[in-house]
Design goal:
alpha+beta; 23 strands; binds uridine-diphosphate-2(N-acetylglucosaminyl) butyric acid; elongated; 416 residues; four-stranded mixed β-sheet; 14 helices; single chain
């Protein structure tokens, strides 16, 4: 099992170029199945979640070509067969195939999706959407058989703005008869990316990025092209690293407005950021002050940048508070963070109080999940001495070439 070894305390300078968004790419690839012609998607990140999706595509008999960061998918000879449990459970986004296949063939068989175990993560809103569109859902333990004679447009109100449910219902409704309206939808930029791609192939979707999405069903999607938007979570992770260790560290190829919930918090804490149209430059300061963070759906503070922010908060003077409102189990890495010297108390798995500043010391630690792993990696970068992280498969699921990107700007970090 590979590990990541870090010698902490090195100043970082130069440029880190941000890759395409994981959470966009993992939806755009299954969306391509709705089309019967070749589609091209560029700026695909090189992460293991994409490899897992590619395995499912191949299993379904799609033809794939990958050339650098561009993927070409030809779905004209897809075989709609049950997606085995082992493939479904490799990642959360496997369930986007459930919606594409349902939308295209009106029948799909697969298993409950996987993903980091950061909470319960039910799929009830997606299933509610399928049923509203006229499908019958048979659930046998964790296996689903979903069938519709015809999918018909419907009005669907989501109990909460779920990213997954919003994308799933969009995918299932693109070819339904008539008009579908989905209210209280998620507004994440990744949803706009998926809607734009589908429209590019001939779908008629309006309102992505607002509270309500309207979909006028179409019979056919033709070939299309899209570019994955920059990964705002990867970008945010590097901006946080720059605030701790940067000397004019440039985080480039980003859309800074997607990062505003983070950058406004960093500015409140005293970080000096230079925000440009497509990059941010950040340098370390001597003193930061404690801040309060509450995770919320976009455009609120993202839950995915909650754990990577914790190492920064250990270096702020005073008591910072982090309230996690999206997931029930997103403080698993605090145990190791405290072992490294932090002073953090977690109440009811919901609120963390971080007293700082505290010195961190290198230790052998574990990546409990993707963003928890990123958090431990940042702790290692600022700690005295050497940190070794195991279970790094989680980190490699979502951060493209992270050791190389950091080494190039001066970090002492290696895969061992
Ligand atoms: N929820 C339900 N029922 C549903 C769907 C969601 O109760 O049917 C609840 C969830 O339990 C959670 C909240 O609604 O409390 C939000 O869940 P959402 O569906 O929005 O999350 P997701 O689609 O499963 C995506 C990202 C996550 C990111 C969340 C929130 C992907 C593949 N994953 O998950 O990314 O945390 O949105 O922004 O897009 C990550 O990248 O590390 C990651 C976990």
């Amino acid at each position: 099992m590979p590990k990541i070894k870090i010698e902490g305390g090195h100043t970082l300078t130069g440029e880190v170029r941000i890759s395409g968004s994981k959470n966009s790419a993992v939806a755009l690839i299954p969306a391509a199945l709705l089309c019967d012609e070749k589609v091209k998607i560029s700026n695909i990140p090189n992460i293991s979640d994409i490899d897992s999706l590619e395995e499912i595509l191949k299993y379904l008999n799609a033809k794939i070509e990958r050339d650098d960061d561009t993927i070409t998918i030809d779905s004209s000879e897809i075989i709609n067969k049950e997606i085995p449990e082992e493939l479904s459970q490799k990642l959360r986004a496997s369930y986007y195939f459930m919606s594409s296949l349902l939308g295209k063939y009106k029948h799909v068989e697969m298993y409950f999706p996987g993903g980091c175990s950061i909470g319960v993560r039910p799929i009830d809103q997606t299933l509610k959407g399928y049923r509203a569109l006229g499908a019958t859902v048979i659930e046998e333990e964790n296996r689903y058989t979903i069938t519709a004679e015809e999918l018909k447009g419907a009005h669907i109100y989501l109990d909460m703005p779920s990213v997954g449910a919003t994308i799933n219902i969009m995918l299932a409704a693109v070819k339904a008869k008539g008009i579908t309206t989905i209210e209280n939808v998620a507004k994440e930029p990744e949803i706009v990316n998926v809607a734009t791609f589908l429209n590019n192939m001939g779908a008629k979707i309006k309102g992505a990025g607002t509270d309500m999405i309207t979909i006028r069903g179409v019979d056919y999607l033709h070939s299309g092209f899209t570019e994955v938007i920059p990964d705002r979570i990867e970008a945010g992770t590097y901006v946080i690293i720059g605030a701790l260790l940067g000397d004019k560290l440039k985080v480039s190829n980003i859309i800074p407005s997607h990062l505003e919930a983070l950058t406004s918090k960093l500015i409140e804490a005293g970080v000096n950021l230079e925000i440009h149209p497509d990059y941010i430059t950040v340098s370390k300061s001597n003193k930061y002050k404690a801040v309060k963070i509450k995770t919320l759906p976009y455009p609120g503070y993202p839950t995915d940048l909650q754990q990577p922010m914790i190492p920064f908060l250990t270096q702020c003077s005073g008591t910072s508070t982090v309230e996690e409102t999206i997931y029930e189990n997103r403080f698993q890495n605090i145990y190791d963070t405290n072992r490294m010297g932090a002073n953090i108390i977690v109440k009811n798995n919901r609120i963390a109080k971080i007293k700082g500043p505290t010195k961190l010391t290198g230790k052998n630690v574990t990546a409990t999940d993707l963003r928890g792993g990123a958090s431990m990696l940042i702790c290692g970068l600022i700690a005295d001495g050497t940190t070794t992280i195991d279970n790094i498969k989680y980190i490699l699921r979502g951060y493209d070439d992270i050791c190389n990107k950091l080494s190039k700007v001066g970090a002492k970090i290696e895969l061992i």
